[in-house]
Amino acid sequence: MSTMQAAQIIDGSQPPKVTAISKPSEPEPSSGIVQLKVLATGLHRLVRSRASGQHYTSSSAPAIPGIDGVGEAPDGHKFFFLCFKEGGSFAEYINVSNRHRFPLPSGLDPVKAAGLINPALSSWMALTARCENVPKDYSVLIMGATSASGRLAIPLARAFGAKRVIGCARNEEALKPLGLDDYIILQGAAESTDFSNMGHVDVILDYVYGPPAVHLLKTLKSNGKVQYVHIGSLAAHSDRSALEISLPGSVLRSSDLTIRGSGLGAWDLQKVGKELPGLLEALLSVADDKMSVKKLAEAETAWNEDGERIVFVP
Q1: pTM for this one?
Q2: What is the pLDDT of residues 223-269, one digit of tens each?
Q3: Neighbouring-strand partners of residue 267
Q4: Longest dimension (CA), the chain
Q5: Gap between the Cα atoms of 71 and 61, Å rounded
Q6: How far is Cα of residue 312 from the mean position of the Cα atoms in its chain?
Q7: Which of 45, 61, 77, 256 is most exposed by smallest CB count within 10 Å?
Q8: Pick from 301, 270, 274, 308: which is nearest to 116 by CA?
Q9: Partners of residue 261 on adjacent β-strands
Q10: How far is Cα 44 from Cα 311, in angstroms, rounded to an integer?
Q11: How many Å apart are CA 72 and CA 95, to the nearest integer?
Q12: Pairwise CA distance, residues 148 & 138, whole Å
């Protein structure tokens, strides 16, 4: 039996070990499954969280980490793939259902796709799967706009038709170069943040949550429907109590406000599959982001590195 190199999680509290394991069997042509040679796969925050056992979609060890990537089929065609169910992508080869692979658009670099699709999905799915009847030339507020996913949400919101994009974060110098139409400085004391000049927004994409979200919704001045989508909880990084909020009922009664969440569960892989081709095309217009490209053999040493996005290649 032939072997391949793969990273394996043996203990969720430790980085994976790169070792030789059995290569997956070649699927039958009629099985609806294809074997891909992995060309690039990203070390996303979600990958680390699942591997540590701290995410609601975690699987038990031993397991190969990795949830997506770009692979090449035996006929030479390249695909972006998802592998939440098939097994991890931190390997030389992976068998993937035809339903979970998507043609890589011409001109889209495999490393870029592998590094950006996961963080980009957060805003793309919020807009496409959790918002309804978004008006033409809509306006959007991105809470946590300087975060990795927040930065990506800016060009993707424009690709989805936004005419006015407003960002909110603590660091003004980090906000300035992001190409926003306007920005708001998030204060240390959330209730001191001034949203009074923001005007109406049709959509709010929130990566922060906690007290900033409560203050925003309590002071929101809108002249029409507002769709708020909770995506992340950056506020909880410094205060775990920010994972929960208490919102007065008057906020819900006094405005045309819809509150939803976006994440696996709020939508399923079938819905992701429907929206992924559009996201792959949208990424062609997104500027390249800084990424650290490493060999799969370096997975153990690179596992806990901070900073740039990490993408593993063979």
Answers
A1: 0.88
A2: 899 999 999 998 887 778 778 889 999 999 999 999 999 988 899 88
A3: 264
A4: 66
A5: 24
A6: 17
A7: 256
A8: 308
A9: 230
A10: 9
A11: 11
A12: 23
